[in-house]
């Protein structure tokens, strides 16, 4: 009997032990197997797609933030750089250029607007800035394609006693120079070309390039000016445009005569010849001749 | 008592008289600009503001429940923060503009403009004479 009891107990123990062991095994295997089973369920429920979408969105958001951060380091492109740069130069030279002063309305906007329309130049925006100094007489500064910035010295037009038509002709000459891009071409240099429209994210901003650009503006307006070849090209162009209209052509010729007299007699304007060489030559080029040769 | 009531009415009417009416909100669209004391570009500058700044266009109170909106065909009467003054109409826009400072913020920071330069930049826009040739 005793032995029967012992054997029953042994059997029971063994069975519970084997059950425990087999339970552990099944738990272990269920951990691995369940995952695979769940994946099928997830696929059917499209939950994995949702997870993928969320991850994609997160990555896209991160990329967008990065792109926006990089964009902040953009440098203006050719299309927006030049008006900004010219105005920056005007701000930096306010004391020298003396443009912040009170003046009457000379009616120049209307006169020039009408002149442009008469010449067939439409839809051109322009800004005129009058200067209270004889240092810089007249210029069209580099600007964005859709607008022009004109500088005009009040002492210069007063000394010459120019009529509105003559002023419009002077400005139109500057407009042609602006169209040819002479000023801009002079100001441009390799480092500036490289900088325009670039991005300096995680790079050092080279502020020397801006300083050098301002210096180029100074040189162009006060020292270098335009060369004989450029002057010949512009004068010839003016001649071509105006020769159909005697009144306009004579006004242009008379205006250059006035400037020629001024630069020969008034010491204040002797520098003019350096910037616009030379009114005397312009008169020669304009006089009707059969054997005019360019430089 | 009667005197007191009279004084109260007087104070009330004065405060009503001084209150201007907001017509709409507009945004400043040039790089920098000035709020002028009077409707003239040469008038004293009360404050300098930069592009994108919201301004309230006002109707000026000219009597009890009477307002006057147009003072000058080129200028709007506006308020910005504590300041009230005049600003050139052509510098305002109804929608928030895309400003140069916002498009190129780090480049603009590197210019290190000081207050005097910002002031002059605003003045420059006042000093320009604007024109445009049109198709006839």
Characterise the protein shown here:
The complex is a heterodimer of chains A (295) and B (136). Chain A is mostly helical. Chain A has one domain (78-286). Chain A has helices at 2-45, 47-71, 78-92, 94-97, 108-118, 154-160, 164-180, 182-187, 190-195, 207-224, 228-242, 246-265, 272-275, 279-286, and strands at 125-131, 138-141, 147-153. Chain A has a three-stranded mixed beta sheet with strand order 1-3-2. In chain A, α5 packs across α7 (164-180), α7 packs across α12 (246-265) and α12 runs antiparallel to α14. Chain A is rod-shaped, with a radius of gyration of 40 Å. The model of chain A has no long low-confidence stretch (mean pLDDT 88). Chain B is α+β, with helices and mostly antiparallel strands. Chain B has a single domain (20-127), classed as SH3 Domains (SH3 type barrels, Roll). Chain B is 29% helix and 37% strand. Chain B has four helices and nine strands. Chain B has helices at 2-18, 100-103, 105-109, 115-127, and strands at 21-28, 32-36, 45-50, 54-63, 66-68, 75-80, 83-88, 92-93, 129-132. In chain B, strands 1, 4, 5, 6, 7 and 8 form a six-stranded antiparallel beta sheet that branches. Chain B has a two-stranded antiparallel sheet with strand order 2-3. The longest helix of chain B has 17 residues, at 2-18. The relative contact order of chain B is 0.21. Residues 8-17 of chain B have low confidence and may be disordered. At the A-B interface, α3, α5 and β1 of A face α3, α4 and β9 of B.
In short:
The complex is a heterodimer of chains A (295) and B (136). Chain A is built from 14 helices and three strands.
List the helices and strands and how they pair.
The complex is a heterodimer of chains A (295) and B (136).
Chain A (H helix, E strand, L loop, with lengths): L1 H44 L1 H25 L6 H15 L1 H4 L10 H11 L6 E7 L6 E4 L5 E7 H7 L3 H17 L1 H6 L2 H6 L11 H18 L3 H15 L3 H20 L6 H4 L3 H8 L9
Parallel strand pairs in A: 1-3
Antiparallel strand pairs in A: 2-3
Helix pairs in contact in A: 5-7, 7-12, 12-14
Chain B lengths: L1 H17 L2 E8 L3 E5 L8 E6 L3 E10 L2 E3 L6 E6 L2 E6 L3 E2 L6 H4 L1 H5 L5 H13 L1 E4 L4
């Amino acid at each position: 009997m005793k032995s029967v009891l012992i054997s029953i107990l042994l059997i029971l123990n063994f069975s519970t032990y084997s059950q425990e062991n087999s339970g552990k095994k099944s738990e272990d295997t269920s951990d691995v197997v369940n995952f695979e089973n769940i994946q099928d369920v997830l696929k059917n429920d499209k939950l994995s797609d949702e997870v993928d979408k969320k991850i994609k969105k997160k990555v896209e958001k991160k990329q967008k933030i990065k792109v926006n951060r990089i964009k902040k380091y953009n440098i203006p492109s050719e299309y927006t750089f030049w008006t900004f740069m010219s105005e920056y130069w005007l701000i930096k030279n306010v004391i020298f250029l003396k443009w912040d002063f009170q003046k009457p309305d000379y009616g120049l906007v209307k006169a020039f607007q009408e002149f442009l329309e008469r010449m067939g130049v439409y839809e051109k925006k322009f800004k005129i800035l009058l200067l209270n100094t004889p240092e810089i007489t007249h210029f069209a500064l580099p600007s964005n394609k859709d607008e022009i910035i004109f500088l005009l010295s009040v002492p210069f037009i007063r000394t010459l006693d120019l009529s509105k038509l003559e002023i419009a002709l002077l400005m139109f000459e500057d407009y042609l120079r602006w169209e040819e891009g002479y000023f801009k071409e002079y100001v441009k240099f390799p480092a500036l070309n490289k900088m325009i429209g670039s991005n300096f994210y995680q790079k050092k901003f080279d502020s020397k390039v801006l300083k050098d650009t301002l210096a180029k503006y100074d040189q162009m307006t006060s020292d270098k000016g335009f060369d004989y070849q450029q002057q010949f090209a512009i004068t010839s162009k003016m001649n071509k445009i105006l020769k159909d209209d005697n009144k306009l052509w004579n006004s242009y010729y008379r205006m250059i005569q006035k400037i020629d007299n001024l630069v020969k007699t008034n010491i204040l304007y002797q520098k003019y010849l350096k910037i616009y060489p030379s009114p005397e030559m312009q008169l020669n080029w304009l006089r009707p001749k059969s054997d005019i040769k360019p430089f | 008592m009667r005197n007191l009531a009279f004084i109260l009415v007087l104070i009330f009417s004065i405060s009503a008289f001084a209150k201007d009416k907001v017509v709409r909100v507009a945004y400043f669209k040039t790089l920098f600009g000035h709020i002028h004391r009077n409707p003239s570009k040469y008038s004293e500058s009360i404050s300098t503001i930069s592009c994108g700044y919201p301004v309230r266009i006002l109707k000026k109170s000219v009597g009890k429940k009477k307002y006057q909106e147009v003072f000058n065909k080129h200028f709007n009467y506006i308020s910005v923060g504590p300041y009230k003054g005049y600003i050139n109409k052509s510098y305002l826009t109804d929608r928030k503009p895309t400003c140069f400072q916002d498009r190129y913020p780090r480049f603009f920071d590197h210019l290190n403009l000081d207050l005097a330069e910002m002031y002059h930049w605003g003045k420059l826009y006042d000093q320009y004479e604007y024109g445009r040739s049109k198709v006839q």
